Amino acid sequence: MEVPILKQGPFLIATIQAALSDADLLQLRTALVHQVVRSRSLGVIVDVTAMDVMDSFASRTLLEISHMIRLRGADTVIVGIQPEVAFAMVQLGLTLEDIPTALDLEEGLAHLQQKFQTAH
Amino acid sequence: MSREKLVAKEATVASSYAADLARSEPTTELLRELVAHLRQNRTLLREEWVARISEARLLTAMTKEEIFNEATSVYDSYVAALETGTFEALQAYARNLSERIIPRGVETHEVVGIVLLLRDVLARSLFAKHQTDFEKLNRILDAYEPAANRIANTVAVGFVQERERVIRQQQEAIRELSTPVLQVRERLLILPIIGVIDPQRARQLTEQLLRGIRTNRAKVVVIDITGVAAMDATVANHLVQTVEASRLLGATVIVTGLSPEIAQTLVTIGLDLGKMNTVGDLQGGIEQAERLLGYKVVPTS
């Protein structure tokens, strides 16, 4: 299942549907990095609202996405983590380290726009 | 011991007593005689017992009338237990009595005390009645004593069980003290926590908070624990997890009001202070939250 990646000005938005296989996650990782290069994007929002579980593989892949995109000079924001998922994640010790997170798409965009503005 | 185990144990003892009863015919006869004597002299013996109770300064929380009424019920239940050799009715009565007098501030030693006094008063009256026949007195006491001890035991245990039930009920009520998640500014939530937090309540608080963050689209949360005296390492870890989970929802958490004891606990469990944003008191916490959100509070004059 391919994750749709939309362009919103200087940013990319990837909306994950529920039940992504490991292969799909890796495919997303590759697709996002390529797209960031092609579009010369400044930021990526990964919307996980529809994900009702987040296992260690998904969590690690999100970290990798963030690091790879950072190497292209862009920021990643993870948005839409559900309360139950957040709770389960911290209990398993999956914290997404220092990747910025936001409540939803609107907040994620606001965060990136703020960063983009202050960087100028 | 759980209630079920206790009841089972009592049933075993009760059946052995009933077995003793069945074994010795003379004992039954003697008990019948004893019960008749106690019924005949009810007024006199009850009066003496009540006098002893005030002499011993027991049941001071109750009025004379209340003591008289309870004394009558206890006396009758006591004699009935002696007569039937069964203790369920007495047990039920003891628990019922306890339910009534515990809120009045009656203590365990008072309840045990008055039952033992009744035992003494009745025993003395037996001594008086059979003072000329030492042999008969011995036989009557052989019948009376195990029953009387069993009665004292039943009443005391019933009282203690009722107290334990009240304590459990109160613990439950404390656990359920609902903790509201309050919005005090746009995007700013306050979670004031008061009382004892056990792991169950901690979990409830976290779920409530995370849902509140999502519903109110909060960006900053101030968790105030001024009202929490102490927490163990499990609950402290839970607090850290709550902070991390809130971050995953895009909200920053400021913890305020840590007591010296809790500060010690957190350091002892090796908390990474970088993970936790803390301010001394609630006022400071709200001020910092406002700064984070870009508010500035300015006096109007």
Task: Tell me about this structure.
The complex is a heterodimer of chains A (120) and B (301). Chain A contains four helices and five strands; from the N terminus they run ββαβαβαβα. Chain A is α/β, with parallel strands linked by helices and 120 residues long. A five-stranded mixed beta sheet of chain A has the order 1-2-3-4-5. In chain A, α2 (56-71) links the parallel β3 and β4. The radius of gyration of chain A is 13 Å and the shape is globular. The mean pLDDT of chain A is 90. Chain B has eleven helices and five strands. Chain B has a five-stranded mixed beta sheet, sandwiched between helices. The longest helix of chain B has 43 residues, at 134-176. By secondary structure, chain B is of the alpha/beta class. The mean pLDDT of chain B is 85. In chain B, 68% of the residues lie in helices and 9% in strands. Chain A binds chain B through residues 78-79, 81-87, 89-91, 95-96, 101-104, 107, and chain B through 206-207, 210-211, 213-214, 217, 219, 241-242, 244-251.
Gyration radius from CA atoms of chain B, angstroms: 31 Å
- Beta percentage of chain A is 15-25%
- Specify the structural class of chain A: alpha/beta
CATH fold name of chain A: Transcription Regulator spoIIAA
Helix-strand makeup class of chain B? alpha/beta
Would you count the extended β strands of chain A for me? 5
Number of domains of chain B: 2
CATH fold name of the largest domain in chain B, please? Globin-like
Determine the CATH superfamily of the largest domain in chain B: Histidine kinase N-terminal domain
Number of strands of chain B: 5
Overall mean pLDDT of chain A: 90
Helix coverage percent of residues of chain A? 40-55%
Proper CATH architecture of the largest domain in chain B: Orthogonal Bundle
Shape of chain B: rod-shaped
Q: Could you name the ranges of chain A where pLDDT drops below 50 across 5 or more consecutive residues?
A: none
- For the record, give the distance between the C-alpha atoms at the N and C termini of chain A, rounded to a whole number: 38 Å
Q: At the first level of CATH, what is the class of the largest domain in chain B?
A: Mainly Alpha
Q: What integer is the average pLDDT of chain B?
A: 85
